[in-house]
Amino acid sequence: MPEKTESPAIEIIGVSFTYPGSEQPVLNGANLSVAPGSFTAIIGGNGCGKSTLCKLFNGLIPHYYSGDFEGEVKLGGVPSQGQSVAELSRKVGYVYQDFENQLVRPTVLDEACFAPLNYGLPDYRERALRALDLCGLAPLASRFIWELSGGQKHLLALAGALALEPDILVVDEPVSQLDPRHARQVYEVLRRLNRIHGKTVIVIEHHTEFIADYCRDVCLMEQGRVLWKLPVTEALNRLDDLARLGIQPPEATQAAARLAALRGTAAQPLYPVTTGEALRHFGGLLEGPIGEADDRSRATGDTRDIGSTEAGTFGAIGTIDAADAADAIDAIDATVVRDAISAAPTARNPVGGPAEPKPDQRPPAAVIRLSQAALNYRTLRKAEHTVLRGLTLDIAEGERVALVGNNGAGKSSLLRLIAGIARPSGGSVDVLGLDTRSTSVEELSKHVAFVFQNPEDMFIEDSVRKEVAYCLKKRGYPDAGATVETMLRSFRLEELQDRDARLLSGGQQRRVSLAIGAAVRPAVMLLDEPTANLDLATREELLGTLRELERHVRTVLIATHDMQLVAGWATRVIVLHEGRVAADGTAAEVFADPELIRRAGLALTQSMELSAGLGLRPPCAAPQELADRLHRILAEKEAPSHGARPQLV
């Protein structure tokens, strides 16, 4: 008898969907099949339909979101038509991009119990405790939700979905607002659920380094269609497709491809995609030791299989484990990192090297001054909770300041103090000579623009155009119409201008919020996680806008987990940890302190990790720089052999 084949966990057949008020379909004849037990990443540019596609899996489309729908969706071979969202949610757990909005109970245990209790399951408490234990939250069961860090809240949203014990788990943008350490923690939980508990895991992700480390398959979407679904290594080597759609391959892949082009060698079908693969690849070319970081992982037997490439092109490769990624930092001497970053090109110093001070240049005036500024609040248990602990800072005109640190360190709270949204509990905050304790938020907002971490918090109108124009018209800005047109064009919002911003994708909402903030040309610009949820093309547009803002904005502060943004943009980096300033200096000085990086939940770029593993000094901050350095080394190694070759006469 023929062998019985297992039905796909999810099957999408010819699905098209158009949101109300839009003439263009978000999904346009999409087809997809996901095998049971797979770990699949869905990638694509902002607005290509990734989140909309995933909302088919649990019936939110078409049962909750109205619109024009056609096609068929099957779960485990059974059509979802006729099944309610409540029934489908037992089979498909969903952690949304704005995960904090799905936390509805006061304590951790209450939240984990919520879903199974609503279904009347008698073992609801046991299910909740199992889910909390899987996510490492059991010790926090009695904590209130608002006492948790962002990473802990994300894990709690995951535990709430797991409490119903679904076979399929969908996580939209798992790491978009998390520091590197919490991001790895979330992905380690997902991998354990996939491998040990057999869950089918689907993630929507922009960070291809995480995809390379954890996923087995990748599905690429373009204009509402599934362009292809491939094993992870093959998918991340589709460089032309990724570049066209604004998706950045892992830095390891970029460096390997650039090196091959520089050397004029034939293009390989598959370049390395993980740090471990790249160390083997480059180490083989250099015919030398791979370096301390990789040696250490092999010596401890710390290897990680790499999805579909386990027995493929690169074999079973020893890699730097995700949980021990910070150990790679120890292989880099402090002065090495400092030299690398100070020599790297920046927007202000495009040729690299230390910036030359101008003679007789006066120190710039302080635009923002914090003097022993503190922020605290009283919890329901009547305890005083301190968020910021006596910060004293002067931020000068013309500085580009990056605020970094782990989730809960106080970055967003500091921005709120500067914007006047929160008043200091102690000390003072002055902005452009205005004391935020006695100046209204309305008055401060004429000089300070705050782009929130959650874009939807900024939306009050029913169309994108009205959102961008709102503040300009309320305050009677001259040439408001021309400014709106410029913002819509700069942030690629012209085709979306008549849509309700609340119905856009996360990346599109981010672009709208940036356009709102940039439109008023403020003296001080505050951006909270501006690159979260952005594809490569929009991220580059943001960086271009930041450079353009320097002509109009006196000072820019960004709270971010994006270390590439920090290394390439910031002139000053302030590290917050537990409400205090843990470090304040240049990017070079911050990245040169391994203990600080570990304690504050930061991370080096993959190019820096590769440099450490290959023993390159100084290390390289970007993949292009790494490839150029390796090319020079290889050229020097080849030169003597050419010189010794007998000449033909």
UniProtKB/TrEMBL annotation:
SUPFAM superfamilies: P-loop containing nucleoside triphosphate hydrolases. It is found in: Cell membrane. GO terms for cellular component: ATP-binding cassette (ABC) transporter complex. Residues 10-248, 368-603 form the ABC transporter domain. It holds the Pfam family ABC_tran. Coiled coil: none annotated. This is ABC transporter ATP-binding protein. It is a peripheral membrane protein. Keywords: ATP-binding, Cell membrane, Membrane, Nucleotide-binding, Translocase, Transport. CDD domains: ABC_cobalt_CbiO_domain1.
